[in-house]
Design goal:
6-stranded mixed β-sheet, disordered N terminus, Cytochrome Bc1 Complex, Chain A, domain 1, 43% helix, 33 helices, MPP/UQCRC_Complex, alpha+beta, Pept_M16_N, signal, 4 domains
Length: 889
């Protein structure tokens, strides 16, 4: 069962706070620049971390340039770019993108629309040719737009079903009224209903020109050969006479309060102020201000530490012409938001009147500059950094922001805080949890419905694409990890990488609260997880964070723990990480605060539609009394004592249940020595605990509807237990078949049937979740209430087809290509490398298991896929859970 813990929610909010961080990369030596005669700007950055390349084609057009009363035009044009171009049909485009195996998508913002590929380097020519064809022209017919409009309207319904998005939309409208920023790039159903194919074609022909674009290519490529290829593909595309850009005339913000209901288990308070944009002279100052206010040593975060709020923080979002900073406070369901709001106002008023602590400004600058180096640790992150600098910030390179940050002074930060945090110009939003009703057994949204079978005719690829994908082979892994087992039973895996002067570490203690917590102590792991934030027995929380700031490091402790640190400070960082992990303070003073916070969160959680959907689904899938059905209640949390929490920590945190993966510029032998010094005194006693759930019988079919009054769209999960575990050889055939069903964007069978042909959904996902003893298969999608029945029936129909008819050779090869090409992509970032090695170690698999899997996929037959689906998947045995309005029809 997927339980949403307090720690997980806080983690998401902390991640949101990272918006305020400057995300850029230092200028590497191997950078090639050019501007073609037609105005296309090109930047090629060589990065040899993995045989992977990222292309990002940034068109300098977005929702700023849309016609009046048509706020979603740029977004709609982004969608239609995937429906084909002269010389490349939508089916060919989908098949090509799927065969490449990586990421292929786009994003529309206020001033930039970005199209990107992340793919093995061998497919760079294909990616460039696709983007060349799409720049030259796009097929936009009324028939195709009518189909895509159904999908994009489902996206609108999805986002407008999210109360946080609604709040964001209203905040933006208030902060930027009378300017293009007064609306989001999403668009509305009403405007899409009035949009014509001719309007979209005109928008493309006006703005999608080489002299309005910046092409960034990063990865393991030959720069000279790549530039020659770019000139060949794009050089003869004519430049265009671009229209005038919209004017931005920002008026003073008028204070306003927005109140909205939410289906979240907690309430939220947002206090927003307008900030300078990315092209403003004081952008770096604004970024440092946001980072300083988001610090764990700052007052807003302190609200969560002293019990004023469940969580406090600060986030900043920047657009080219303006931005906004937002203080965030979280309060429990049924709680009073006013004390949280008052504290937030007080903290920001103090920043305006007395300034920001210079120590926090200094730490924010050092952390932001360190982040520049960390961006090198990902091929697509490096491409993002250059696109951000050139297309969004209007800078010459990512390094330009480094110089600007270094020049920021505390006096400049204080002046900006004084000018910004004026209560007369603040927009406040309060989201208050409200009940939507109890779950009920669903009726009328399942059952049979007849459709024409999915076409199984192979797509005829263009010759240039067919040649690129003609041969499938097992990719050569670039990983050569060194595997150690320390004397205390702790496992250490080291993967040296020299692409940057940084080190990242990912650790996990294998625990399972459902199997290890005594009866009546549900929630003890959540309380423990929150207490890790209060420092160590040697350093209180502020001292501990100051020590991390001093070496420009980030660390987190708990059953999952991590460290990111410059390589020169690796030993110091590992010592701090071990101190937090092995010697948590668990202070008596903090315990009642965390206990009340966790109980308040749980009280809201157990009434939230998300939780009711998940627990209802699990109750239908699992036998009564199964330990996975255990969950915290306010009563179980309030029944805990600090001694019980300490006993749980002593019982479950063991070195022989712990794995640590280190990736970066290190020597494995030295890493072993450092880790032994930091963790070597940690000892375990008694036999290893059991942390894996036992096997369960097959579930019966069922239906569940959970009302959610904040949603206009239904979120649907169809799930079932399956008898294939993570070590069963049949998993290879199921994985391959699952790529036919749900992999490869438009090329997948479910995308074709549910979105492309019928316009029933915006997206649909399928996944196998394999455990050691139990596993599940699930299908997820969002749809309007009147489309749920049809979409569910199509899912069942396509699964039955997988069981009765072998997939075509083209579908099989495409699925193989996806899985084989994903292997190098998983090694193209420090995070991907660390996550892969840690996951394999935790599951007890060999560290070259991805290569072993690739060999299985290469040899797999269509008959084996058909037999696996016939044997293990039960199309009529899904439990279908619908969250949102009652399904119709």
């Amino acid at each position: 069962m997927k339980k949403s813990s307090m720690s997980a929610v806080i983690g998401m909010l902390l991640a949101a706070g990272a918006i305020g961080q400057v995300q850029a990369a230092a200028v590497p030596a191997d950078v090639t620049r050019a501007t073609l005669d037609n105005g296309l700007r090109v930047v090629i950055v060589r990065d040899t971390l993995a045989p992977v390349v990222t292309t990002e084609l940034n068109y300098l057009v977005g929702s700023d340039e849309v016609p009046a009363a048509f706020p979603g035009t740029a977004h709609a044009m982004e969608h239609m770019m995937f429906r084909g171009s002269p010389g490349l049909s939508k089916d060919q485009l989908a098949a090509i993108a799927a065969n490449m195996g990586g990421a292929f998508n786009a994003d529309t913002t206020q001033g930039v629309t970005q199209y990107y590929f992340v793919t093995p380097s061998q497919d760079l020519d294909v990616a460039l040719h696709v983007e060349s064809l799409r720049m030259r022209g796009v097929d936009v017919t009324e028939k195709d737009w009518a189909k895509e409009r159904g999908a994009i309207e489902q996206e609108v319904s999805r986002d407008l079903s999210n109360p946080s998005y609604k709040a964001y939309e209203q905040l933006q409208a208030q902060l930027f009224a009378g300017t293009p920023y007064g609306h989001t790039p999403l668009g509305t159903r009403a405007s899409f209903d009035k949009t014509s194919a001719a309007m979209l074609k005109r928008f493309h022909d006006t703005w999608y020109a080489p002299n309005n674009a910046i092409l960034v290519i990063a990865g393991d490529v030959d720069p000279a050969a790549t530039l020659a290829r770019v000139k060949q593909e794009f050089g003869d595309i004519p430049r265009s006479q671009l229209p005038a850009r919209p004017e931005f005339s920002f008026k003073p913000v008028q204070a306003k309060a927005v109140a909205l209901p939410t289906d979240s288990p907690y309430g939220s308070v947002y206090l927003a102020y307008r900030l300078p944009g990315m092209k403003a002279k004081d952008y770096a100052t604004a970024a440092v201000l946001g980072q300083a206010l988001a610090s764990k040593r700052a007052g807003l975060f302190g609200m969560g530490m002293d019990g004023t709020a469940l969580y406090g923080g600060f986030a900043a979002q920047f657009m080219p012409q303006a931005g906004f900073g937002m203080a965030v406070g979280i309060f429990p369901r049924g709680g009073n938001p006013q004390p949280v709001l008052a504290r937030m106002r007080s903290i920001l008023a103090q920043a305006a009147s007395k300034g920001v602590d210079p120590a926090l400004v200094d730490a924010a600058k050092r952390q932001a500059i360190a982040a520049l180096e960390f961006k090198k640790n990902s091929v697509d992150g490096l491409a993002n950094a250059w696109s951000q600098a050139l297309a969004f910030e209007g800078l010459d390179s990512p390094d330009a922001i480094r110089q600007a940050i270094e020049a920021v002074t505390p006096a400049q930060v204080d002046a900006l805080a004084r000018a910004t945090f004026d209560p007369a110009h603040a927009v406040t939003a309060i989201l208050t949890p409200e009940s939507s009703g109890k779950p009920i057994a669903g009726k009328g949204f399942g059952g049979a419905e007849s459709f024409a079978s999915s076409p199984d005719k192979p797509v005829q690829l263009p010759e240039w694409a067919a040649k690129a994908f003609a041969k499938l082979s097992v990719p050569k892994s670039s990983l050569h990890p060194v595997d150690y087992h320390l004397a205390n039973g702790m496992r250490l895996i080291v993967q040296p990488e020299a692409i940057s002067n940084t080190v990242v570490a990912f650790g996990r203690v294998q625990t399972n609260q459902d199997l290890q917590a005594p009866k009546g102590e549900e929630g003890v792991a959540d309380v423990l997880g929150q207490l890790f934030q209060f420092g160590t027995t040697h350093l209180d929380r502020l001292q501990y964070q100051a020590a991390l700031d001093a070496i420009s490091a980030r660390a987190s402790a708990g059953s999952s723990f991590s460290l990111a640190v410059p390589s020169t400070h690796f030993a110091e960082g590992m010592k701090l990480l071990a101190d937090a992990e092995l010697h948590p303070a668990l202070p008596a003073k903090a315990f009642p605060i965390v206990q009340r916070q966790t109980a308040g969160f749980v009280a809201g959680q157990v009434q939230s539609p998300d939780f009711l959907t998940q627990i209802g689904l699990d109750q239908a899938l699992l036998p009564a009394g199964d330990p996975e059905l255990r969950h915290a209640t306010p009563q179980s949390v309030m029944g805990l004592t600090l001694d019980k929490v300490k006993q749980y920590y002593a019982q479950v945190f063991r070195p022989d249940m712990t794995t640590l993966v280190v990736v970066g510029k290190v020597d494995p032998a030295q890493v072993k020595q450092v880790v032994e010094q930091a963790f070597g005194d940690w000892k375990a006693s008694g036999p290893k605990p059991e942390v894996d759930y036992a096997a369960v019988p097959a579930n019966h079919a069922g239906q569940l509807h959970v009302p959610d009054t904040s949603a206009s769209q239904d979120s649907v999960t169809m799930a079932q237990t399956i008898d294939v575990t993570r070590d069963d050889p049949d998993r290879y055939a199921l994985n391959l078949g699952n790529e036919v069903l749900g992999g490869g964007f438009y090329a997948s069978r479910l995308y074709h049937d549910l979105r492309d042909t019928r316009g029933l959904v915006y997206s649909v996902g399928t996944s196998f979740d394999y455990g050691r003893n139990r596993s599940t298969y699930s299908v997820d999608y969002g749809a309007d209430p009147d489309k749920v029945k049809a979409a569910s029936a199509l899912v069942v129909q396509d699964l039955k087809q997988m069981q009765t008819t072998p997939v075509s050779p083209a579908d099989l090869d495409r699925a193989k290509g996806i899985l084989l090409r994903q292997m190098p992509l998983g090694e193209s970032s420090f995070g991907g490398i660390g996550g892969q090695l840690l996951g394999l170690a935790i599951e007890g698999k060999p560290l070259d298991a991805t290569t072993v899997a690739a060999k299985h996929y290469l040899e797999m037959t269509a008959l084996q896929v058909q037999q696996a689906f016939a044997k293990h998947v039960r199309p009529e045995a899904f439990v279908t859970a619908v969250k949102g309005p009652a399904p119709k029809g």
